[in-house]
Automatic annotation (TrEMBL):
<comment type="similarity">
    <text>Belongs to the FAD-dependent oxidoreductase 2 family. FRD/SDH subfamily.</text>
</comment>
<dbReference type="Pfam" id="PF04205">
    <property type="entry name" value="FMN_bind"/>
</dbReference>
<dbReference type="GO" id="GO:0010181">
    <property type="term" value="F:FMN binding"/>
</dbReference>
<dbReference type="InterPro" id="IPR010960">
    <property type="entry name" value="Flavocytochrome_c"/>
</dbReference>
<dbReference type="InterPro" id="IPR007329">
    <property type="entry name" value="FMN-bd"/>
</dbReference>
<dbReference type="InterPro" id="IPR003953">
    <property type="entry name" value="FAD-dep_OxRdtase_2_FAD-bd"/>
</dbReference>
<protein>
    <recommendedName>
        <fullName>Urocanate reductase</fullName>
        <ecNumber>1.3.99.33</ecNumber>
    </recommendedName>
</protein>
<keyword id="KW-0560">Oxidoreductase</keyword>
<dbReference type="GO" id="GO:0033765">
    <property type="term" value="F:steroid dehydrogenase activity, acting on the CH-CH group of donors"/>
</dbReference>
<dbReference type="Pfam" id="PF00890">
    <property type="entry name" value="FAD_binding_2"/>
</dbReference>
<keyword id="KW-0732">Signal</keyword>
<keyword id="KW-0285">Flavoprotein</keyword>
<dbReference type="InterPro" id="IPR050315">
    <property type="entry name" value="FAD-oxidoreductase_2"/>
</dbReference>
<dbReference type="GO" id="GO:0016020">
    <property type="term" value="C:membrane"/>
</dbReference>
<feature type="signal peptide">
    <location>
        <begin position="1"/>
        <end position="25"/>
    </location>
</feature>
<dbReference type="InterPro" id="IPR027477">
    <property type="entry name" value="Succ_DH/fumarate_Rdtase_cat_sf"/>
</dbReference>
<keyword id="KW-0274">FAD</keyword>
Amino acid sequence: MLKKLCAFSLAALLVLSGCSSQVKQQSQPETAEVPQKQESYKSDIVIIGAGGAGMTAAIEAKDAGANVIVLEKMAYAGGNTVRAKGGLNASETKPQKSLGIEDSVQTFIDDTMKGGKEINDLSLVTYLAQNSSAAIDWLLGIGMDVNGVVAAAGASKPRMHRPVDGSSIGNVLVSVLTKNLEDRGIDILYQTEATELIVENNAVTGVKAKDAKGNELTFNADAVIVAAGGFGANEEMYASYRPDIKGFITTNHAGATGDGIRMSEKIGAALVDMEQIQTHPTVEQTTNEVISDSVRGIGAILVNEKGVRFTNEMLTRDVLSANILAQPGKYAYIIFDQNLRNNMKAIEEMVEKGIVTEGKTLEELSATLKVDAAAMTKTLATWNKAVADKKDAEFGRDTGMDASLEMAPYYAVKVAPGVHHTMGGIKINTNTEVLDTKGAVIKGLYAAGEVTGGVHGANRLGGNAVADITVFGRQAGKQAAQFALANGATELVMPKVESKKSTAGTASYKDGVYTKTAKGNNGDVTIEVTIKDGSIADVKATEHKETQALFDAVQKSLFPAIIEAQSADVDAVAGATKSSDAVLNCVKEILNEAK
């Protein structure tokens, strides 16, 4: 078995994107550009996508005894999962019971069906709810803290599980999943663009892909799992289904372009609910930052530009988005106090990003927002009385009412809707087998996560995405492994990473250790460069506040690329442009100083 891939140079990293294919054999055009090399590899299972669903599937497949290759389009793992803010919905769990929360699988099913306007695939929703508690146990078992439980919009019971300290679940989950892949020796081939599903004898038998140099790669496998995510970052694609949301900002990462959906469709996979595209109601518009449902779930409220509350903040995302868009200016402010800030670590991330407005008093906050102070004061007084009475006479809110807003300072974030989740996608059954347009199983092809459709219907409840990727990611890994191993294991043959060329002595900088700081996505990034024998010998970050999974990708690809090039004239990491720019700006300043 080949050694684990480790030190990646930018040129050596392999690329994934998910793209296209067909059930019928596709012939290459005669004018096709000749690739540099053509190489073939093999495994029991190939997984397209290293987001939450793909990595979960990889862990389960490996634990079932299968060899796994994971292809990832971007230069980092996590996909949209790393951006998840709230938590994971589950019912009848140990954390719920320890907190005295009474919930049931049936209530979870009912809430999800109601939220999805009853067009969800009931069999998938039932499987999701029935296996959600086991998903919590599994996550706890692999080192993930999901012991905190809060209320969420559209849920009649508190069932959104998250880290106890209130951290955004996505970043923590991706770190746990990537560590578990590393512990099991599962390699992710970064920057590896899948271009086609291979079909032989009416079964999917592998994936064609390209690396960053244009080399064509063939990955033969007994089973393929498509976990390439949705299409919320592909405006042309989502606007073709929903012209009314053309021009909306998106909360999605750059790689969410629907490649896996189109690839599967071209080999005959059925699609479902493609026009069902969710906007998240509370998105900060200058940073595309989602303000999690859980912020409202612990007691925050929404006011309009007049300082007046206008809605039940715990309504489903589609209704709440519409209510915000109906306000003057088509925006709102989410309001919370120091008590809520103290109880939710994710709020600190918002503060660090500079999107939170603070007022030492309610009057000061109102003045800064240019909102009528008397109206704002009356709004909070009415709300605090509703919390005390456990009755919201104005809008009928009955969850997320455990804390009043009375502890100064007070805070606000200006929000409006943004494209968030694409509920439509590949049609699957409860075994995560992909179905064709006649309802028959496409042999050897599985799918999980946002690339699929049917689970969420017309509207996804907050907390159900992480539940979806975990429950169905686990199922895909198990089912694909069972199918792939039915006739015995396949020897794993992986691509080799090219050796990094030595560039020592090609530059002429003054020896020393240099440090510079530049502005990243979430705050300052401090970079230290060591010059030895006239060349860049080492690059490292001594301090940063970037999203860890994204910055890990920057460190793994950009830092070696700088050393190899002996220059800051290298490409930024796709999907982590601001973090990359901060690093490159620091290095440029350092090299100018070291000349």
